[in-house]
Each structure stands twice: as C-alpha cells, then as structure tokens.
Amino acid sequence: MHPYALIPLATGIASCAMASAIYARDPHGSGNRLLAGVVAANAVWATCELFWNGAASPESALAFARLAGLGVLGFAPLSLHLFVVGSAHAGRASRLGRWLPGVYAVSALLALLYLGTPWFIAGVERVPWGWSPRFGPAFGVALAWAAGWPAALAVAAARRRERPGAVWLTRIRPLYAFAVFPMVVAPLTEVVLPLAGVAFPRLGSASVALAVAGGLWAMYRYGYTVVTPGVLAKEIFEVFPDGVALLDRDGRIRSANRNLAQLLDREREPLRGRVLAEFVRGPDFDPTRDLDAVECELLAADGSASLVAVSSSALRERRGTRIGHVVTVRDLYRVVQLRTRLVTTGRLAAVGELAAAITHEINNPIAYIRSNLGVLSRDLDALEKAAQTSRDETLAEELKEGHELVQETRDGADRVAAIVRDVQRFSGAGYRERESVDVNRLCEEALRVLLPTLRDGVRVERRYGELAPLACAPQQLVQVFLNLLSNAAQAVGERGTITVHTADDGDAVSIHVEDDGSGIPAEVIERIFDPFFTTKAVGEGTGLGLAISRQIVRDHGGELSVRSDPALGTRFAIRLPRGDAPEMGR
After folding, report:
1. Looking at residue 49, which CATH number applies to its domain?
2. CB-side neighbour CA atoms (13 Å) of 193
3. Residue-wise pLDDT tens digits, 38-56
4. pLDDT (tens digit, 9 = 90+) per residue, 190-234?
5. Same domain for 483 and 556?
6. One domain for residues 71 and 217
7. Percent helix, strand, coil in the chain (nearest 5)?
C-alpha cells in the first residue's frame, strides 16, 4: 500500500470521530445533527477515496470514484439546511427554506447521474499512489453545485454577521480562516492540478477534515467544545421554571424555551429573529443591558398583558467579548396573589388581635345584662303571682308582655354571646386541651345534631375508614364538621345526597364532606373563608362559620380546602396530621 493511503484513511477515521462527537453533543438539536451530517459526508468522500486508490482493477476504482459523489454532492443541501436552521433572522431563513426541497431534489438527481453515467467521472487512470479519476464533460456542473452553495453561504454569513448554525461561526474569527482553507486546497488538488496534467495527491477531503478540526479547536479556545453536555444544558433550558430567551447583540431572539412561548401564547419557531422588545413593555426595559427583576408587562398573542419580572445578563465568550444576552421572564401572577394574601393575612391578624380585646370587654356587660335579666324575670314572676291574687287583668297582661320582652332580650344577649365566642375562636383566644379520640365518632356526633334538621328527601352516606385515634380538641372538630354539614344541607335543599368520607392518609387523617347540591359560584369561592362573608340572608348567619373552621383546622396543623362545580356539587377536604402535642393555643 502506498504511504499516501494513510491520508484518506486518517481523514475518514477523524471525520467519523468528529461527526459522532458533534452528534452526541445534542442529538435532538437540528443544527447539531446537520453539522454532524456535513462531517459525515466528508467521511464518505474520504473512505471512497481510500478504496479507489487501493482497488486492484480499474473497474473497482471507477465504482468507488463515482460512489464518492454521494458525499461530495451532500455538501450542498446540508450546508443550506444548516444555514436556514441557524439563521438569526426569521425572514431571510424562511425565504431560503423554500429552496430546500429543490436543492435536496437536485442533489439527489445529480448523485444518481454521478453514479450511473460517465458524464461526471468518465474513467480512471493509473498514478503512482493508486488511481486518479478522469473527468467527464459535466464534472464542472457537479463541482459548481457541491462547492458553490457552501462558499456562497459562508460569504453571506461573513458579510451579514449572522450565525449559521451556532453563534461561534461568526463570533470566532479564526473560523473564517479554517473555512477558506478547503475552498482553496480542494479545487486546487481535485480539479486544477489534474486538468493541468500535474500528478498530485488529492487533498480535498483531508482539507475539509482539517478545517473541521481547526474549527473545533477554535471553539474550545473561545469557550465552546463538542464534548460539552449540550443535551443536559438544553434540558435545563427547557425545564427552567421561568421563561428564558437567548438574544443576539441587537436584542433579537435566537432561541426561547417552552415556558416563554407559553407566557407569550405563541409558537417558539416564529419567535426566532423577532425583537424581544416587541413583547415586553416597561419604562426601564432594555434587554441589551443588565437588568435585575425589572417589573414590566408581557404582551400575549391575544393582546392581553400580564405582570412579569425581567432579568437580563450579558452572554460572553471565554475572552470576555459580549456575544448576546440571556433574559429570564418570571410570571408575577403568583407573586401578586401572595402579596394579596400577605396583606389579607396582616389585616386578619390585626382584626384578630383587636377582636380578642373587644370580645373580652363585651363579655363583662353581657354578664351584667344576663344577670339583671334573671333578677328582672324573677321579680316579674313575683308580680305575676300578686296580680293573680288581685285578679287585675290589665296588670296581668302587662306582666305577660314584660316576660316576652325579657325573653327576647335574653335571646338577643345569647346571640351576642354566641357571636363573641365565635370571634374568640377565630382570633385564637383561649386555651384548648387535646385528647386522643376517634374521628369517626366525632363525625357521628355532628351528624346526630344535623339529622333532625334535614328534609325527608336528603340522604346521608357514611364511608368511614379504619382510623387510629387522633390527638385533637374534640369539641372544636365537632364544630368544624357541623359547620360543613350544615352548609352541605343548605346546598342540597329539599333533595340530595350528603357524603361523609374518612380515610387513613399515612401520617395524617383525611375527612371529606361532599354534597351534590347547587355548588359554589366561581366568583364566590375565593371569599368563602373570609371572616363575616356570607351568602345567607340578613340575620341567618354571621359569616364566621368557614373562617372559624379553617382556623381550627390550621390550629391542628392541618388544612381545609374546597372544590366545587355548580353542576356537580361541592367537596370540602380536611387533612389533619397525627400530632403528639398535649395542647394547643396561644
């Protein structure tokens, strides 16, 4: 074997290794796959060159020389496709993209003619290192098609400062030198010297492999490498909870993750090449400078605006040159909700502290009133006996009316006392001891109170699970269950089903109270746990039932939630952790 055979052998091996490394960096990236395809096409070219130079007969050498056309002609469509995928401007990319099917079709046709006709490779002739192809009349067409597209696209990228395939192709200047190298060596050794009758080894595939290797070296020098786990970086980019966009130096979007596309309510591909400022509105917004959580408005496809926090950091290569920006967009909807909840919680805390003090002061005059009403009732009884003795009907009527007034006043005082107790419970005032009890028994206690008040058409279903005793304040939980059951009874009205379901939930106990009643409207469900909010008629409720219930459940370390559908009914869910605390309270 002639020593020259080592050149195509090394070229083929190196090209296969580089194509594999590039592909492994990000198998799912279309630009990455296309770049690996270009290098693989060069591996085909070099391998065929190795075999035709080592062929024993001219027929075998001619077959391999023509087969090499598959690799050579593959440069044209792959390079154009790579340019389209990596173009920074969507408008120019879409125009070039329309040519892709035609370019692939022409390349396939030329490859068939290259293989089956003598138009491109007419034959082979002996040379010291093996065989040399003899050109056919149409060889110039294949050469112009295979080399013209990559050369034209490289020039276009250099003039327009775009990034065909990746940012480093235009930001790293040595890459231009490596790109020019095969454009000079390949035509010289593959065409010019053979036509001039100079016997010189063909170095086209070797020059392409050297250019690729040099490009990878330059990438590494500037902070990029094909062995970087690109798949991992892309996965992080995709699963990042905020919207993320990579911008070029002009503020145009190179790529955007799924979350940003969802925030904008748009497809990702049309975003490429668009200016981010088209979608973000804010006085302090400028994506080409560093930003730290600047609040702006994000404009969705339907014209709606949402509040977001925008952060931007410069993207630099290893030597410090700015090549773009990384912008993160955080949806502040949850933050706004949290702010509202914090304000509400602060207000409720203040109301609770105030209520605890006020109810304590109200209890004293209520006690006086109840005591005095007792004395007054006793005196009225004595006067009523005296009136019966004197048979004074007028006095008897007045005394009867006085008894009714005393009773109404006592009822009013009792109602005030009940409201005060409810407010005390909501505010957390008082001392509450815990004991281990069966939650199913507490549900039954609440049902025994409720059942006599239900209409005949209302059915109660019990689905109790096997529960271990729970450390809790029993009477408070009975009050919670009774509140939920009373609301369910009101929801079903004359006819319906109320279901009480308990279950062991590992380290907690879950209790569900469901009904198939009218459900809770969406505009109301957000407020049902607010103190003093009620949908009942005036005088029928204080609006503290659910607020107190939630407070009691939270005092037990649990949570009370609700899910409702006007067509299906309402389901309240209580989750109480198993606690060993002997008491709770302030």
Report:
1. 1.20.1070
2. 15
3. 899 999 999 999 999 889 8
4. 888 888 888 788 888 888 888 888 877 766 665 554 444 444 456
5. yes
6. yes
7. 55, 20, 25
- At 485, which amino acid appears? L
Cα separation, 374 vs 364, in Å, equals 16
Length of the chain: 586
CB within 8 Å of 397: residues ≥ 6 apart: none
The residue to which tokens 């746990």 are assigned: 529
Residues 27 and 156 in one domain: yes
**CA atoms of 387 and 383, how far apart (whole Å):** 6
- Would residue 80 count as lying in a domain? yes
* Rounded CA separation 182/211 (Å): 7
> Average pLDDT for residues 371-389, to the nearest whole number?
76
- Same domain for 247 and 349, yes or no, is no
pLDDT value at residue 461: 93
Is 227 within a domain?
no
Q: For residues 124 and 128, what is the distance between their CA atoms, to the nearest angstrom?
A: 13
Least confidently predicted of 98-112, 132-146, 347-361 = 347-361
> Where does residue 533 rank: exposed (0-12), middle (13-18), buried (19+ CB within 10 A)?
middle
Residues 540 and 559 in one domain: yes
Q: Give the residue numbers spanning the domain of 391.
A: 336-429
Distance CA 23, CA 32 (A): 6
C-alpha distances (whole Å) from 177 to each of 41, 47, 76, 225, 347 are 21, 26, 20, 19, 69
86 and 216, same domain (yes or no)? yes
Retrieve residue 196's tokens: 């001039």
Query: How many folded domains does the chain comprise?
Result: 4
Q: Which of 25, 35, 49 is nearest to 81 (CA)?
A: 35
Q: Place 1 in a pLDDT band, splitting at 50, 70 and 90.
A: low
Q: Which of 306, 331, 356 is the last residue of a domain?
A: 331
Q: Are residues 308 and 417 in the same domain?
A: no
User: pTM for the whole thing?
Assistant: 0.46
Element housing 171 (H / E): helix 168-171
The closest alpha carbon to 188, from 233, 137, 147, 238, belongs to: 147
- As a whole number, the mean pLDDT across the chain is 78
| Angstrom distance (rounded) from CA 137 to CA 228 | 46
- pLDDT number for residue 585: 43
Residue 234: inside a domain: no
Integer distance in angstroms from the first to the last C-alpha of the chain?
Answer: 94
Query: Which CATH number characterizes residue 460's domain?
Result: 3.30.565.10
Confidence of residue 505 (pLDDT cuts 50, 70, 90): confident
Same domain, yes or no: 400 and 442: no
How many other CB atoms are there within 10 angstroms of residue 44's CB atom?
A: 20
409, part of any domain: yes
Higher pLDDT, 136 or 434: 136
Largest CA distance in the chain: 153
For residue 297, the domain's CATH number is: 3.30.450.20
Closest listed residue to residue 85, CA positions, set 341, 302, 269, 300: 269
- CA–CA distance, 481 with 472 (Å, rounded to integer): 13
Indicate the residue among 331, 348, 380 that finishes a domain. 331
Distance CA 200, CA 180 (A): 21
Q: How confident is the model at residue 398 (pLDDT cuts 50, 70, 90)?
A: confident
